[in-house]
Each structure stands twice: as structure tokens, then as C-alpha cells.
Amino acid sequence: GFTTPLISATVPFDAKGRNPLEWSAARVGGEGIVPTVLKRGEDGGYLVRFYQASGKPTTGSVKVATSVGKAEWTNFLEDRLAPAPTSVSVPYTARPFEIKSLRWVPVRTN
After folding, report:
1. Residue 29 belongs to what H/E stretch?
2. Is 26's pLDDT higher than 60?
């Protein structure tokens, strides 16, 4: 089971204001890409995991909602594979049916 309850918010149809009607901690873009996991990383930060489902090489990007202090590509066990750009939009290339995992640590704003 899940150890952290889902947080939900209801936005009235006629809502007004500066805040967006839609918000996402991470968005994964690319043809045939299926996001499967968004969780707290084992060593801190956050992790998004996705796979290429259409059997074609794909390029895209992972967009995160926070400023990034550190980012890296990991394997399924969250061992570091390679550094990733520390920007809110991280580009990637996925081979057919490849599973990819990106871990990032947000910049602290205390």
C-alpha cells in the first residue's frame, strides 16, 4: 500500500486569480512516453520514472515545477548513472521500450 496519502484539491469551475488551474510536480513529454513513478528519492530529492512504450526512439523532456540544485539519471535501484542538466526542463533521448529514471534535488529557498 501507499504510505503517504494523496493530496487533492478541488478548484471551482469559475475560479479566478493568479494561480494556475492545473499544476504538476513533474511532466514528461515525448511521443509514446508513459510516466510510471513520481516519488521521494531513496537518497533525498524526487524521482520520476517513465518508459518508451511505442517501440520507437524518442526525444523529449522532463519538466519539473521547482528550481533544480542537482539532477542525475539513475538505474532502477536509484544508483547514479550520469549527471543531468540542472534546469527545470531536462532533455532526454529514449531507445525503444527503454525505462528511464531521473532524480532531482530542488534548490532550498529558506
Report:
1. strand 26-29
2. yes
